[in-house]
Every structure is written in structure tokens, then in C-alpha cells.
Amino acid sequence: MHGRKESQMRRKRPALAALVALAVAITVVATASGGAATKGPSGWVAKSSAMVGSGGGFGETYKAPSATLAKMFFHANLLPANKTARNITLASIGRSTKTVDYALALKCWKNNGCSTGTGGKLTVAYVEGFGENTFRQMSKMEFILEALTYPQIGKIIYRSAHSDLNQAIADFKSVIAQHVSAIVTYPDFGDAMIPVFKQATAAGIPVSTYAWGYVSGPGTNYTTVVGEDTCKLGQAFANVMNTKVKSGDIAFLGGFPGNPLSAGWQNCEQKALNPNIKVVANDPTNWDPSKVQGIVSGILAKTPKLAGLSYEDALFMSQGGYAAYKAANIPYEGVFTYRTDEAGMGCLADKLKDPKLQIYYYTAGNAQIRVALTADMMKLAGAKIPPEIVYPIQLQQQSKRSMCLPGYPATASGTSLIPLSLLHQMYP
Amino acid sequence: MAAATPPSPSRAPGTAGASGAALAASAAVAARFLPVWLATAVLAIVASIVAPDALGNTSWSYVLPYTTVLAITALGQMLVVMHAGIDLSTPGVVSFGGNLIAGVGAGRDHRLLLAIPLCLAMGLLVGLANGVLVGLLRLNPLIVTLAVGQIVFAWSSKYSRDHVTNQPDVPGALSSWAGEKPLGISVVFWTGAGLTLLVALVLRYTTAGRRFQAVGANPRAAWIAGLHVRRHVVLAYAAAGLLYAVAAVLLAGVRFSVDPQFGSAYLLSPIAAVVIAGASLAGGLASATSTWVAALALTFLTQMLVVMGLSTAMQYVVFGAAILAGMVVSGDRVATLLGRWLRTVKPPPQSAPTAGHAS
């Protein structure tokens, strides 16, 4: 009996060895090593650039390089009208010139948190509701780079709820229980987060949101919301549609149902459209390219001559959206307005070279998370923070200023302030 | 686990004797798989009235390729369900598979020769891991496949972040091929139809297929008859993993590009397709062609709701109601009720267990 088992095992060994070898082969072939890391500025900085702003306070200097501001906002003068909000922005973006350790930043980014090694007593947390796409991952790196410019920050925490509301609330409670010093978040679940925001505020922890992650009661329920006014974004989209489409059928796409970003611009665009423009569809995509393909295909089935489309995510329209047009044999033409500026969309438009494809875009706004962290830090230093830090909107035209930037990954936003060399280490 | 489970009444449908037994078995098989065909026909009629655009060429250009991808994942799930198992590793395998196609392919056509076999091998390996854990170690398939799927999905996310974000497009040769339309219909559809037919024929007309069905229909009887029950369970999971990987290749071609969440939509929809097609989650008979039709019905329904322009909330309500209706009239329930009725009307003079046929 024992001998029989042994012979069976002997027979199975080559098969087992083959399976192990196969697994090793898949791992070896499918992976490649990344590049070396160095030190450098915490944000994108031009070789020589004039400084904007003056003065300082609460441990900050209200000055930032003009070129860095222009990269983030398209023009250095597109700063908030409110003086304090403007100073917070200048202080935050001015920190781009400070030198940080890229190896540490990369380690922190890959490990979802780290000790900064400064011995600083403060702990800061970035609490994510979703966390999985390139936009959120780049925002995480922007947060880390900004945090590394503060010697008083000794620890960085990152949490991602993977689109699970209960997990998001649990993550928030967890960092509050850990007595973190400051929290930055993108509230994917909107007002459902108010109780934990209030809990953090009551515990003396400043909470700021970015990318206009609007939750009711900024300034009372939480510290501040950073970003463009999404209502004005919708009005800017409507202005493009009114002047370029003039009359015809257009569609809206959104993210997760009920998210504050989509609802903000959609309501205002709808109201600002001229009466000859009809919105034939308004569908959530969960910011999932597969879903975008299905929904765009459904819209095209009903409205093959779609004149225009507004959406947050330029990248997904270069992926799922473009695939839907191609599968339906319908030319990828029309007036498209996007909130984000991923290089992939720009490179596709440059490749298609179709004058009937008219794209207008804003910025993904990854670097806004830096401002949110600086607002928290200034609050800890005793500053009075305005409830909203709002940026003026100026849409860009793809044919005049392409989103396709040399060296940028297709999924990356060109208005991000992550230095290109570090971006290449993140996405080799 | 599957080997130790005694057959339930629904898993041995033909219980009448002599000539009546064959008739009753045929009726039970027809009752099991017919509802999904009828329901799909009704859906098409409803669409022609409330959303005729959903039946146009533009709509089919999306529905057929995506039906195929769902159908192939559902075929894999069907093989597992036939052995009273369940496989929740589908999203992980599809995601990792798609990311391997883009990552290893690196935008160069010739690298598909490496990327596609690697993707298939990965699917096979994950399936084998599931099979060994469920079939040999007798662990709970629900928990095991969920855990394995999570591990694969996490690895896929990491791989995507490290190797795909910079170049998310699949090699042009694959997307061009997926865009071809022989006889005016997507080549992805023809590929899926061929694969479905192959699975149906193998299950019905080959010795191995008949054994596979026999083990699923009644593991204890199969074991007494000298069949290797555990080996068949491992085989079912391995074949399922391979089919998920095939689906990943096709989806990558249809999508042109991949992302970390690439296969996340394929957790529950393949299971829904299998059940609506008439299979019982307790194991036993299943039909490859009916599973394909169920996948078509689900994909088409989603598209129809978008074309109708219903609000998001209403889309979810209608889709959920349709799934519930599908479950109520699912073939498994109909076959069970028919079997009970036949036994009441004409008690069997003798027992004549049969595995029946899958088409």
C-alpha cells in the first residue's frame, strides 16, 4: 500500500514540477524591474520661473513659481478670488520647490503609507472611497509628496474603501481612533460621510476634500472643500455646447450614481443649455470603461447622430467610448467636453486628426489634494480656513493645446505636479 | 465535497420506467432548458415594441461581443455548477488575463504569441488551484474561490499598476481582429458560438463528456461505477479557469484597452446566466446552448434599458425584477415541479436513474 502511494506520488511529481515552473515563468515574463530613484523637487518645477505672491504666516510662505501654477491651472492667474484661499494655494504649490526623497515617496506610495523618518509628531491620513484608478493613485502620490515637505509630519497613512460605503466609514473611524493630526479625502459617498466628518471635527482633526468632493456644511462639518466650482464647470460646458453644437442632441455621462461631482456640473449645464439642444441621455458609468462602452453604445443606438457629450473622464472616452463608436462604425466626431485631461485622450485625438472631433477639457486636478493638505496644516497652525477654496474655470481646446504630452502615460493627467521622472518610476 | 453529497431529487430527473421513463426524462430536460429560450424570445418582442433601436445594428455591435464574453465565463461557471460547486474567482482571472495581454503584449503584435498563452496558462493554473482546494482538500467552494479570486485580483491590480498603466492599449492585431465582422457579425461572436458548440458536443457525444455529466448528476453513483469523482471536480475548475482566460483575451480585443478593474463585472452575472439557463446550484444537468442564450438575454436587457432611456434607479429596478422573474420561471424550478407532478400522476414501477443529456 505504502509502495503504491509512493509510486503514485512519483508519477505526479513531474506534473507538479511543471505547474510550479509554469507559475514561475508567468511571474518572470510578466514582470520587469523599475528604475532607480533619486531626490528632487516635490512638484513639477520649470528651470527658471518668476514667483507669484508674497508674505507668509502659519509656517507657510505665500509664494509659488508662475510656471508651476500655469501647469496646474493652465494660467498662473487662475487663482481663487478669496485672499486666504489664494494664500493657501500659493503656500501649497510653493512647496513644489522643496526637495524630497523620491525613493521614500515611491516606497510610501507602493506600501500605502510610511514613516517619513523625520521624527515629526504629526500623522496625516488620506482616506479614499474608491482608490483604484490612475487618477486616485496619482492623487495619492501628490499627497505623499506634499506631506514629505513638512518635517513635522512623521507618519503618512492611506486607506482605500474600494467603493464600499461601510468600509469608507470604518476607515474614517479607524484613523480618528489612531488620533491622526489631519485627514484629506475624496468623499465618493457624499453626505453619507457627514457623521464621520463631524466626529473628526469634534475630535479636533481638520478634514479637507479635494476635486470638489462637496459634502454639505464645509466650514462647520469639516474644514474646507478644494476645487473648481462644479456648477461653473457645467456652465462652461454649456457655453461650449451652445456655441459649437447650437442645436441637436447631446448626452451626459456621470460617475457613481449620486456622486457630488457629476450632479454638480450636470444640473448647471442642463439649465444653461439653449432650448435647441436636447439632452437625450444622462447615465452613470461608475467610472468604469466597460460600462462607458455599453452606455455610449446604447446612446448611439438611439441617437446615431449625437452632436455632443459631456463627461468627467476624458480617458474613458478614449477607451470605452471610442470602442463603442468604432464597433458601431460611427465616426468619432462631435463636441466633447471633459473635466479631466488624461494624455491618452489627447494622443487619440492627435492620431485621428479629425476637425469634426472637437474636444474641450478642464483639469483632472490631482494637485488640488496638495492644497487640501496645506489647508489642514495651516488649520493646525491656527489659521482661519475659508470653507471653500474655489478656482476659476477656463476650458482648454484640444486642437490648440493638446492633452497629449510627451513622456506622459496614457492614463496620466498632464496638469499633475508629480515630477515626470517620478511618474516614470511609478508607471515604468 | 461534491463526491459526498447524495443526489437530490432534482438531480435524477428521469424516474419513470420503460418507455414512459424516456418520455418523462425528455420532458424534464425540455422543461429545464426551454424557459430561457422562451423568455429571450419574449424579451425580443418587448424590445421591438418599447425600444426598437435596441434591435438595430449599432446595438448588436455591442451586445453580441459582450454576450460572448459573458457566455464564455458562464460556460466555465456552468462546468463548476454541474458538480455542485461555485466559482467566484472569475473577476480575478478575467482582470489578470486582460492585464497580461496588455502588459506582456506591450503594444506589439508579435508579443501576442507570448501574451495569449501566458494568459491561458494563468487561467488554467488558477482553475487548478481552485480544483485542488475544492476537489481534493474538500474545502468550501464559495469561500475558497472567493479567496483565490481576491488574491488573483490583488495581484492583477499590482501588475496593472506596475506594468500596464503606462501602456493600457492591447496590441493592435488583437483589437483589429476583434473588430472584424465576417458575414456582418462580430468575429468574437463566431468564436464564442464555436466554443459553445464545442463544449455542448463534447459534453453530449464524447465518453469523457458523458462521464463528466454522470459525476455531476450523481457523484455517489458515479463513484460506485468506478469514476474518479474528485478528478472530475478538479477538471471542472481547471476548465473553468481556462474559459475565463479565453474570455479575458476576447474582452481585451473588444475593449482595445484594459484597466485595473477590467473583469470586475464578472462576479455574479455568469452565475445568474447559468441559473437562469436552467442549471441547479445543487449540481446536475446544464446546457451550454441555453447558458449562451441566458447570457444573451442578460446583456440585451441591459442594453435595452439604456436605449429606453430609463433613469438609473428604474434601470436597476427593472433589471432586478427581470432577474427575479427569470429565477421564478427558471428551468430548474420548472423541471423540479414537472418531476413532482409526473411522480404524482404516474408512480414509477421501478427506478431507472439516468444522467440525461445536455445540449
Cα-atom radius of gyration of chain B: 21 Å
Number of strands of chain A: 19
Specify the overall morphology of chain B: globular
- Distance from N terminus to C terminus of chain B (CA atoms, Å) equals 26 Å
Measured by DSSP, the beta-strand proportion of chain A falls in 15-25%
Radius of gyration of chain A equals 24 Å
Q: What value does the average pLDDT of chain A take?
A: 90
CA-CA gap between termini of chain A: 55 Å
Helical proportion of chain B, percent range: over 70%
Class per helix and strand makeup of chain B: mainly alpha
The average pLDDT value of chain B, as a whole number, equals 85
How many extended strands of chain B? 0
Describe what you observe in this structure.
- The complex is a heterodimer of chains A (428) and B (359).
- Chain A is 42% helix and 19% strand.
- Chain A has helices spanning 2-30, 66-73, 83-94, 102-110, 134-147, 165-177, 194-202, 230-245, 260-272, 289-302, 314-327, 343-352, 368-380, 420-426; strands at residues 39-41, 51-52, 56-57, 60-61, 64-65, 99-101, 113-115, 122-128, 153-160, 182-186, 207-209, 224-228, 248-254, 277-284, 308-311, 334-338, 357-361, 388-391, 396-397.
- Chain B is mainly α.
- Chain B has helices at residues 18-50, 57-81, 90-105, 112-136, 141-164, 172-179, 187-205, 207-217, 219-224, 229-255, 269-276, 288-308, 312-328, 331-345.
- Chain B is globular and about 65 Å long.
- Chains A and B meet through helix 1, strand 14, helix 10 and helix 11 of A and helix 2, helix 3, helix 4, helix 5 and helix 10 of B.
Put the structure in a nutshell.
Chain A is built from 14 helices and 19 strands. Chain A is an alpha/beta fold and 428 residues long.
